[in-house]
Design goal:
Layout (H helix, E strand, L loop, with lengths): L1 H15 L11 H13 L5 H19 L16 H41 L9 H40 L7 H32 L5 H36 L3 H15 L2 H4 L3 H15 L1 H25 L1 E5 L2 E4 H28 L8 H26 L4 H17 L2 H16 L7 E5 L2 E8 L3 E5 L5 E5 H6 L3 E2 L7 E9 L5 H14 L14 E7 L4 E9 L2 H4 L1 H18 L19 H7 L1
Antiparallel strand pairs: 1-2, 3-4, 3-7, 4-5, 5-6, 8-10, 9-10
Amino acid sequence: MKSLFLLLFYVALIIASPVKTKFSPDRIENYERYLASLSQKSDESVETKLKRSLLYKIINITKYAKEQPPKFLKDSQIATPKAYVDAFLMYIEQKRLLNRLQNSFREVDEKVSYLKKVLESQNSETSFPSIEELQYTFYHISKNKLQKRIDLLKKALSNNMDVLKRALSNIKFKTENNLSQKKRLIKRLHDAKMELENLKIETERLHLLGRTEKIGKLEKTIDYQKQKVDSITEKLIKIELEDFFSALQSGESAVFTIDKNIKNMVESLSDNKKARYADFLVTLEKMSAQRLGKTKILLHRTKEGLQMIEKDLWQKLKTPLFKINEKPISSWDMIVALFILIVGFTIAKLYRRYIRRITHTFINITPSNQIIVSNLGYYLILTGAFFIMLNSIGLDLSSLTLIAGALSVGIGFGLQNIVANFISGLILLFEKSIKIGDFLEIKDNLRGRVVDIHMRSITIRTNDNIDILVPNQTFIQNNVINWTLNDNRRRMRIPFGVAYGSDIKKVKTVILDALQKSSIHYIRDDETKQPLVVMTEMGSSSVNFELLVWVDGDETLKPLRTSDKFLVLIYNTLYENEIEIPFPQLDLHIREIESPQKKRIGE
């Protein structure tokens, strides 16, 4: 038992051990020996060149490649505000370097894992290592070196942040001269941006004139001007950083304003410069949270968010949506108008309720008079609220009077149909008996789906993809069949006939059985809507039947296609079961009439 345990333990160690290459990464003489061996060969194949290149890389990264260690800050090195800002920016660069190294480490680790699987699947017995072994060795050494650099850089970052925190409490920030420096830099920045815009305009002008020979030189000038703008902006950021750390040291609320200014400056940088400040802004937020406390940060962010929401909402509410008589109407005007209407409606309801309550105490007031008084006051209050609402949004009531007068004259001279269609549209709109998507049938040859509803007409699209505009008045005055008003289920009647002498029971049975086995879509799971075959009449040439079947969905909206499916099924079923399908027949009986002359001869 003990020997078995030792054997299993030895096997586990072998499985868990790393891949063994032909030489150890710690033995540099192995690399040089193999390189010398390759150099003596006259073989110049691609494989040999690749092995030689990998060996050079292994020797170089093992023997000659030296990395500069990260800088560890000391408290004595930070004595002035400028030194503090420079140390902070150095810390940010170290964080960017750490991110790059970690990304490189992940890439190299993936390659090492892949090559390890390849080597484990190989069974090479050659004396010289394979390309995969050399690649594995190179990436394995690179991974170890990257890991050491990352660990050392993390220690430097931790140390440097501690030094920055201690220095923030001890250093004396003097920001008196920063305001004058910022004014000068802001003026220089403004002039540089104006010059940049002038250069861009000049470039567009040359493009329009077709003078492309001067555009290349001008574009180089534009790139130089962009770099100048970025340089001035970075100087401003450094000065703002001094103000930021000074405010952070004293715990002033100006930290948030300065932080916002710095973010705006970073956003104005070019893309390649902006990428350098990604960790910069995050670090500023962390230092603010550690120095001021998360509660203060959260309160500020909540207040700032609410202010932004309030400002944005108020701006959207005051934005004009449309105009009436050259008067712009905004969302806020509509909200005020709606509020006035709601208040008027509430007062009218309360008035009606009050009148109905107090009239019960008066004996001489009849119920009819009570209704007249309550309704009359109700509508007068609503009308008054309507005119107050119009006045609140600044509409001229006199212009509405002129419009109403002109409209009445127009109605008298021939706008009756237009007004009738308009009123019919309102009725249909509020009644909701016809909606977009409904399938309507107005006449035997006019059916289709409602695709649009206007104030004057409704657009119906037939199954032939023809759009027909039907006046709204038609739907009020005529009978309209709405196939999808409540649901889209419909019973279809499919007529067919068989010859006299056919077995009626067999006809019904085979049709229903074939329908049940078919893949035609119809309602199957509703006990009250099962298919049925009924005999309708005994015609002159056939015994006539009808297949009654319920359908829904698209089958309802395409009756011709649906009938085609059922008719084909009926025809094939009757043909397969040798049930005769008749055609119109006419029996002609000829009777001979004996002539009088022939009769006399016979006599």
